[in-house]
């Protein structure tokens, strides 16, 4: 997390009401996590979010205090399989991550819990299994977000970390169907609509479009130009072509569609 002093000054000056604790390393291991939340409240912040790997929340006392101080938890959890978790995170803290998730649910952090599952070459074939595991172990969580990995940041240039859209799509669809059947709100993010035939209503970007919001969250670049997208009726509501993906996978799997976004029914979100 960036230094707090300048952030607090800006929060007060601009009357910022929502803040996400994230970046600069894992925020939940900072000894001043709870003090930071208290200072944010005192500065007028009404909604505090924590983006975490959940590992530190295996400590029930810390988890209890965090649950009382923080409004929303986004837990990044890339696999229900210990060996895949270890490969994706380079961490052996799978048991603690699972314990952290369970502690949050046991403490009643249910609707306030969002589980982020980054889809990569490590785990895409296990997505339906993850959905079945979630139905057993994450019941009550507010949202499961399947986010397709970007060829950017730490992942950029790493050989083989980004699967092709075509190979990942069948597993994503099966996982979304299982999550829906288990009663979860579920979305898939950073994934083109033409790869989600029959499941377009789960698309995070489509959901934003259908609510009248900008399709891309703040900080996410607009789609790049490509011939298929230029001829596609779904383009206004779609994640679209990404240069970082095209650099390693090309864009032959993108197909222009004649479906109007307004004809698609959004799933629960
Ligand atoms: S062709 Fe482009 S705009 Fe159309 S659905 Fe596919 S990625 Fe989206």
């Amino acid at each position: 997390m960036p230094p707090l002093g300048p952030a607090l000054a800006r929060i007060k000056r601009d009357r910022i009401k929502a803040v996400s604790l994230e970046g600069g390393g894992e925020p939940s291991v900072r000894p001043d996590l709870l003090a930071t939340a208290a200072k944010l409240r005192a500065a007028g912040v009404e909604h505090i979010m924590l983006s975490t790997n959940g590992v530190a929340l295996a400590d029930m006392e810390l988890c209890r205090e965090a649950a009382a101080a923080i409004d929303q938890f986004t837990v990044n959890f890339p696999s229900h399989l210990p060996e895949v978790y270890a490969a994706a995170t380079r961490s052996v803290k799978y048991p603690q991550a699972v314990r952290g998730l369970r502690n949050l649910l046991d403490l009643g952090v249910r609707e306030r819990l969002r589980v982020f599952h980054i889809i990569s070459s490590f785990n895409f074939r296990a997505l339906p299994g993850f959905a079945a595991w979630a139905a057993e172990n994450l019941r009550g969580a507010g949202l499961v977000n399947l986010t397709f990995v970007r060829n950017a940041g730490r992942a950029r240039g790493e050989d083989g970390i980004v699967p092709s859209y075509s190979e990942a799509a069948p597993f994503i669809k099966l996982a979304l169907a299982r999550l829906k059947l288990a009663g979860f709100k579920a979305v898939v993010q950073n994934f083109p609509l033409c790869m989600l035939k029959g499941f377009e209503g789960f698309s995070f970007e489509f959901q934003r479009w259908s609510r009248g919001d900008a399709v891309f969250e703040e900080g996410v670049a607009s789609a790049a130009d490509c011939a298929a997208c230029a001829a596609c009726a779904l383009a206004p509501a779609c994640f679209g072509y990404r240069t970082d993906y095209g650099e390693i996978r090309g864009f032959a799997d993108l197909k222009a569609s004649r479906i109007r976004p307004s004809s698609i029914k959004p799933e629960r979100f």
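Residues 192-194, 228-229, 232, 234-235, 238, 240-241, 254-257 surround iron/sulfur cluster (CB under 6 Å). The radius of gyration is 19 Å.
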